Amino acid sequence: MQTLKKEKDGRESGKIAKSLSHQQETPSASRFAEISIAVMTERNDDGERLIRELQRLRAKVQHIWPLPPQLPSEYDVIFCDLTDDLPSRLPWLPGEPDSALVLIISDQTPFNLRLLHRCAAQAALHYPISPLAVQTSLALGREHHLYERRLRGRIDKLDDNLRTMRSVERAKSIVMRSKNVDEEEAYHFLRRQAMARRVSIGTIANAVIDSQELLG
Predict the structure, then answer these.
(1) Are 140 and 38 contained in the same domain?
(2) Tens digits of per-residue pLDDT, 138-152?
(3) What span, in angstroms and rounded, lies between the C-alpha atoms of 71 and 69?
(4) Does residue 47 sit in the same domain as residue 112?
(5) Which pLDDT tens digit goes with each residue over 100-159?
(6) Are 32 and 121 in a shared domain?
(7) Does residue 129 sit in helix, strand or coil?
(8) What DSSP character marks residue 119?
(9) Domain total for the chain?
(10) Residues 6+ apart with CB under 8 A from 102
(11) pTM of the predicted model, to two decimals?
(12) Separation CA 16–CA 13 (nearest Å)
């Protein structure tokens, strides 16, 4: 019985150790797998280490050097040397990046707060690199970019809702004048029309406004 118990305990311990090992290895590998990354830095020792570390994380890595006049926007993440003219090379508007930007900063790079603000990067990586620094900068850059994109989506939705509200208010005024009804009845009229046609009330409101403008 003691032998059987020891064998069982050994199997259980092995399962737990294997589970813990899997939990430790899976997050970094699976989290960054298949992410497309552009690395824009010289392929020196630090550059090589950066590329190898990103490849170890199973990311799809493309090295680009020298810096192109305009950074490509088809990558999920861009690791790029911080240069004085980098802001002019960014293909997107400030605050609306198409890719997560991670600035690569070396000991020879002078600190320039204004330049950092103009680049509006999501993260930074300082040479000499370490595996933990690469994973941290990649995770921060990616998460910040996705968070900013969600915020922009919410802002766009709020803008759409505001435009719809303005259109509905204008359409109500037109219906009130043309049908000689009060505001509540005008709104219900627009709502009934939208339900009957299976479209949004904003669509009906815009149609009423367009018709009014067409008729003068």
Answers:
(1) yes
(2) 999 999 999 998 998
(3) 7
(4) yes
(5) 999 999 888 888 999 999 999 999 999 888 999 999 999 999 999 999 989 988 988 999
(6) yes
(7) coil
(8) H
(9) 2
(10) 77, 78, 79, 80, 121, 122, 123, 124, 125, 137, 138, 141
(11) 0.70
(12) 5
SS3 call for 27: helix
201 and 190 in contact (C-beta within 8 Å)? yes
Q: What is the mean pLDDT of residues 87-98?
A: 90
Q: H helices of the chain, where?
A: 2-32, 45-56, 86-89, 113-119, 131-179, 183-197, 201-215
pLDDT at residue 28 in the model: 58
Q: What is the pLDDT of residue 95?
A: 78
Q: Which domain holds residue 53?
A: 2-153
Provide the CATH number for the domain around residue 160: 1.10.10.10
Count CA atoms closer than 13 A to 171's CA, side-chain side: 26
C-alpha distances (whole Å) from 103 to each of 53, 111, 118, 140, 179 are 16, 12, 12, 12, 62
Does the pLDDT at position 88 exceed 50? Answer: yes
CB-CB contact of 57 with 27 (8 Å): no
Give residue for tokens 């990311």: 59
What are the angstrom distances between the C-alpha of 195 and each of 119, 186, 201, 207?
Answer: 48, 14, 8, 14
Whichever domain contains 58, its CATH number is 3.40.50.2300
